[in-house]
Amino acid sequence: MTDTLARRIDGKAFAAGLRARLAAEIPSLGFQPGLAVVLVGEDPASQVYVRNKAQQTVEVGMRSFEHKLPAETTEAEVLALVATLNADPAVDGILVQLPLPKHIDADKVLLTIDPAKDVDGFHPVNAGRLATGANALVPCTPLGCLMLLQDLHGSLAGMEAVIVGRSNIVGKPMAQLLLKADCTVTIAHSRSRDLPALCRRADILVAAVGRPEMIRGDWIKPGATVIDVGINRLPPDASGKSRLVGDVAFAEAETVAGAITPVPGGVGPMTIACLLHNTVTAAKARRGV
Ligand SMILES: Nc1nc2c(c(=O)[nH]1)N[C@@H](CN(C=O)c1ccc(C(=O)N[C@@H](CCC(=O)O)C(=O)O)cc1)CN2
């Protein structure tokens, strides 16, 4: 524990700055990039995220195409919609909001998206490009984490990074990005031996496990930078209020860490800002700009 509290990394402000830079760039492109977002079903959190995506897309000066489909939509219908969007010249980016209803195979849907329009960066072609160091569309959440880290530290070369979580959406691409930035990278997970000791090695600790407040203060190396990707809504307390917490026990962690992302207001807002960034990247690449 240290006398001073960790610096709070303000993802909300950084995301606003990124959106402002995109809004300034878009009029000079000579064309208007378009983003199509597909939502299947009525998951309340997904509805909010999709609404925010559409609103922010328009705010930065791009075209937004929203496709809201009922929960009983068949897999074949979703695949047909993706095929139509692949062929639509006004659409530069396609995002299918996750999670999908259980009767739809998400991997099959993601595989159908044209890799050049895959602004989520989830298609195996983009995952492979990222892994081999080629130009790729990079998953938005880890890209946002990298931007925050580089803004804070400049070069990350030589730093010891530990990522807790091995998902295709966050853990694995985060590891590739940090490796590319010359960090020494460990991916830890639920079966890792002595997780607290592994975490204590980290100059950069990325928590992406989806378990509320699992990473405790005494798992953190004094002065480390902690990036909390978790967004967990706790059940309502006695007063009826529900609270959003990360995968890190924030009150403990901020007495040990050097810098930390809060939840909310840390990594979350970067996800949508990076989606807009990826759409502009995809739009330029499709036109050879
Ligand atoms: N196709 C995708 N599906 C999902 C992704 C994704 O990147 N692509 N990520 C998440 C959800 N998500 C965007 O889709 C997302 C999550 C959280 C936030 C955010 O700004 N969170 C706020 C808090 C919001 C709240 O109050 O609930 C914060 O952390 O400050 C934005 C986007 C799963 N699906």
UniProtKB/TrEMBL annotation:
GO terms for biological process: L-histidine biosynthetic process; methionine biosynthetic process; purine nucleotide biosynthetic process; tetrahydrofolate interconversion. Keywords: Amino-acid biosynthesis, Histidine biosynthesis, Hydrolase, Methionine biosynthesis, Multifunctional enzyme, NADP, One-carbon metabolism, Oxidoreductase, Purine biosynthesis. It catalyses: (6R)-5,10-methenyltetrahydrofolate + H2O = (6R)-10-formyltetrahydrofolate + H(+); (6R)-5,10-methylene-5,6,7,8-tetrahydrofolate + NADP(+) = (6R)-5,10-methenyltetrahydrofolate + NADPH. Pathway: One-carbon metabolism; tetrahydrofolate interconversion. Residues 139-286 form the Tetrahydrofolate dehydrogenase/cyclohydrolase NAD(P)-binding domain. It comes from the Bacteria. Pfam families: THF_DHG_CYH (PF00763), THF_DHG_CYH_C (PF02882). One of its GO terms (molecular function) is methylenetetrahydrofolate dehydrogenase (NADP+) activity. GO terms for cellular component: cytosol. Its EC number is 1.5.1.5, 3.5.4.9. Residues 9-120 form the Tetrahydrofolate dehydrogenase/cyclohydrolase catalytic domain. NADP(+) binds at G165, R166, S167, I231. Catalyzes the oxidation of 5,10-methylenetetrahydrofolate to 5,10-methenyltetrahydrofolate and then the hydrolysis of 5,10-methenyltetrahydrofolate to 10-formyltetrahydrofolate. Homodimer. Belongs to the tetrahydrofolate dehydrogenase/cyclohydrolase family. HAMAP family: THF_DHG_CYH. This is Bifunctional protein FolD. The gene is folD.
